[in-house]
Each structure stands twice: as C-alpha cells, then as structure tokens.
Write a structure and sequence with these properties.
By secondary structure, the protein is an alpha/beta fold. It has two domains: 5-16 and 105-229, 3-Layer(aba) Sandwich (Rossmann fold), CATH 3.40.50; 17-103, Orthogonal Bundle (DNA polymerase, domain 1), CATH 1.10.150.240. 50% of the residues lie in helices and 12% in strands. It has a six-stranded parallel beta sheet with strand order 3-2-1-4-5-6, with helices on both faces. α10 links the parallel β4 (181-185) and β5 (201-205).
Length: 230
C-alpha cells in the first residue's frame, strides 16, 4: 500500500481503557471504603462513573468544560449519584485515579503483535485527546512508547479530535502527507470522520460491531486484521 505513516488513537484502540479503568476504580472503591459511606455497590459506582465520565468527555471535546472541571466533576457527580456529598473525597479519588490508572498495562488484544509487524514497515504515531502527562505514562508503563515516533495530544495542539487542526498539525509535525497516511481509531466521529475530513484515509476499529452510516476507508473488528490490510 502507499502508506508511509500510520496514526493510532490510544485509549480503547491500543490501551485497554475499560479494563484498566475498572481495575483502578475497583481498587479505589475498596481503599476509600465507599460502600461504608453509602455507595450501593461497586457495580453501581462503576455504572455511575461511566455515565458521568462519558458525558463530561463529550462536553470537553466540544470545549464546554475545561480539564480541571472534568477531572473533579466526574467524581463529584459519581459520588452524588451514590448518595455521597463530599468534595474532599472526590478530590482524593481524582488524585488517586490519575496516579494509578495510567500505570495499568492492559492492552487491547493483539496490540503488540500488530505493532511489531507495522513498526518494520511504517512510521507510527499517536493522536490522542487524552491529557499529555497521563498519555505519556500510559505509553511508558505499558511498553508502547518504543513503537511510536511522535505523540500528538489535544493538550499540545489546543483542540480536540475531530477538529481538523489536530490532524493537520499531526501531519505537519511528522512530515507526513495526507496521501501517504492512515488513521486508526475506535471512535467513528472523533477518529475516523475527523481524519477523513482532512483528506486522510481512516480505519475504523469496531470490535463491538457498531452500525454506521458513512463508510470509512476500511473497517476491522480485531487489530490482527491490520496484518493483512497493511
């Protein structure tokens, strides 16, 4: 294929966000004895956290909340949903979560196998909406950092995917061209349509089999499919 540069999303595409996050939240639930403070159960705590975190990240991508508010509100609102009104506890949970979660090393199935293959043929890069300091820790502790030439973050560029500027900046900073680059990600709007909007090819990693209207350049359900596609 004509590609020289392959751009990956990080969370949910290579780094198993759900598994790493749930493991961390389970540890914090026990550490801070949340059930004794009124939380119904770990399952309820996880459910409420996901609801509030997902909503706040959508607002953050739209520029409607700032980073500091996202971090504290996701735990403040989760605790409130559990019947706990305690900002100090929310701040402690945020601190412990941000300290612990990035150090978890669970990766999406076949991630290393695929990266070993692609690294021999392409220049690999990351484009992520995650916070810069946290994403760097994830790459280092999970063993991913050695595979990638550049890490492009929304913090560094000043806009979130799917804004065209983050993809254009990624192309500029890596010396890549739209015609020889491809983006791989799990979010159809943020990763795939965002990249296609600036003229890049895009591969939709879709392990859950989500139905979409506009077709990407390619669609895969397992990263291992990249071995024959690229």
């Amino acid at each position: 294929m004509r590609y020289k540069h392959v751009f990956f999303d990080l969370d949910h595409t290579l780094w198993d966000f759900e598994k790493n996050s749930q493991e961390t939240l389970g540890e914090l639930f026990q550490l801070h004895q949340l059930e004794g403070l009124g939380a119904p159960s770990l399952g309820a705590f996880l459910k409420f956290y996901k609801q509030h975190n997902d909503l706040l990240w959508d607002l953050y991508r739209k520029g409607e909340v700032v980073k500091s508010d996202l971090r504290i509100q996701r735990f403040t609102k989760t605790l409130q949903s559990c019947g706990i009104e305690n900002r100090t506890l929310a701040e402690a949970l945020d601190h412990d979560y941000v300290s612990s979660s990035p150090k978890k090393g669970h990766l999406v199935s076949n991630a290393l196998k695929v990266l070993d293959h692609l690294k021999e043929k392409y220049s690999l890069h990351i484009i992520t909406n995650g916070f810069s300091e946290i994403q760097k820790i994830k790459l280092e502790t999970s063993g991913l950092s050695g595979y990638f030439d550049q890490l492009i973050t929304s913090d560094g560029v000043g806009v979130q995917k799917p804004h065209p500027r983050i993809f254009s900046q990624a192309l500029y900073s890596t010396g890549a061209k739209r015609s020889n680059s491809v983006m791989i990600g799990d979010h159809i709007e943020v990763d795939v349509y965002g990249a296609m909007g600036v003229g890049m090819d895009a591969i939709f990693y879709n392990p859950k089999g989500l139905r979409i209207e506009k077709k990407p350049t390619h669609e895969i359900s397992d990263l291992e499919e990249l071995l024959s596609l690229l």
